[in-house]
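To close the section, here is one more complete example, presented without commentary so you can practise reading it yourself. The ligand is arginine.
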Amino acid sequence: MALWGGRFAEPSDHDLRALNDSIGFDRRMWRQDIAGSMAYARAIAAAGIITREEAESILAGLEVVRGEFESGAFVFQAGDEDIHTAVERRLTELIGAVGGKLHTGRSRNDQVATDFRLWVMDAIDEIDGLLHSLQAALLEKAQAHTETLLPGYTHLQPAQPISVAHWLLSFFWMLARDRERLRDARRRTAVSPLGSGALAGTPFAIDRDQLAKTLGFDTCSSNSLDAVSDRDFAAETLFALALAGTHLSRLAEDVIIYSNPLFGFIALDDRYSTGSSLMPQKRNPDPLELARGKSGRLIGHLSGLMTTLKGLPSGYNKDLQEDKEALFDAVDTVKLLLPVLTAVIRTLKLDAEKMRAALGDDLLATDLADYLVKNGLPFRQAHHVVGQAVRAAQAAAARLSQLPLDSLRQLSPLFAEDVREVFDFDAAVARRSAAGGTAPSAVAQQIEAAKALLSR
Ligand code: ARG
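Output:
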């Protein structure tokens, strides 16, 4: 039976029910719904709205309902519109009419906001742990490769040599910020709407602060109208997830490119790559393509919810029911991706020789310009001179380092015998030793900072 049948002479239409009911997806908040109801029963007992005995009976009944959900024995009925209805219906079956006292002063509007916030808080905690694991995998790989070099790219064109550690750790810091954003969103999620009623607050003397603390919230909301209609927390969490997904997508894209045989820097482990049904030679990076693909889905959920929220009038509106599937799916998606990506990083096989072979002399053109700068030429002029040298080498089908000193000196008299020393990739990397640079000495500091962050 619906929780609101009194004013209707006829039952709801079947098709209306299919549209209106949320039990199909909000049933996964059963744990939060029962916890919320238990805390609420205690609060209204403390306020003298129900007797101690009635509260005991409600708590015992809810404990049975919880057991049924836990063991999978809970049976949904045709009239169970949503999880709140289902729990209350079952409670009343178990303990009789006194079960109907639980909802005194409560609305599904404050109830659903409470359940959903609790669910989101738990989801954030879980995802934080998964992000931590991926960071740990990146850090571990990085530590083994502070002196393994590969070309660094801008515009996907070879730019300057960097270390594999530096490349991997760039994603470590992206994920660190994602975790911060999620933690920050959690702080604003941990505000209890319970005791806001339908919109105007409750006339009963409920200790809302105590109620909030019992449920694991940090505090209770300051405005009942805001509390029942606010879904900022869901939007913020979706944004943090969409941005984390974007970072995962970019990591995936790098690995996809580097595992292409034309690059050959990386080989994926058998367990984390897939084959082709037709072409026997293929090794496809499916999990990484899915990481890239699913980031679109995460961004879609964010823009979907934002669009739902933007025109709503004050108070609860049924549109808000759309919040849950978006967030549930975003959380499921991220939880599906992260363990696989973590394993992909752990099991990556890096081909140091291929990466080294991909380092062309051109990647040291900037260092060549810096050499001229050290010998007194303004950088703008040095840039021009080296550009001419690159062109001359290309015309002679020679490597930049093979240009005779005479040819270089025709471009600038500041070139001398010691210019040969510029053509050393390890030395070029080691020179980038200011904080945040790719030099092994700077990366060592980066690794210390990363370790400190992970152990916090
Ligand atoms: N299933 C609803 C939701 O997810 C619960 C709140 C219903 N409130 C109402 N006034 N109809 O938003």
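Once you have examined the tokens, check your reading against these statements. The mean pLDDT is 96. The first strand starts at residue 149 and ends at 154.
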